[in-house]
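Entry 14. Structure prediction run on the chain below.
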Amino acid sequence: DENNDVATIRDTLEKAVADRVLCIKEFNFQTPGEEMVRPELKSNIVSSTGSKIAVLFSGGLDSTVLAALCSDVIPESERIDLLNVSFDPDKAPDRLTAIYSYFELRRRQPDRKFNLICTDIP
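Output returned:
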């Protein structure tokens, strides 16, 4: 039966994600020493968003499904960072796809705090 096959695939994916994210401990990020950071980049350093989970997020099918599955298995009070990297934000389709998918995740899971973090690499 097709419904059972879909349920089996979803259950398998959810278990695989749970096995990886439910064992993550709190991480204390230490901002690199002043000498390690170029002066023009210092204002871009985020030392912590309060999230233990981050998904490299293009907004495509795979990263969006992973973000949704993470949301399904971790406590609702935990945040999920969605990291989008672009080398040319004006021409990168992944940036627009990430924004659309971010809003779709928020629409479907309004009680979850997703942080869309867009990084531009010059």
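The two ends are 50 Å apart (CA to CA).
Filed with the rest of this week's runs.
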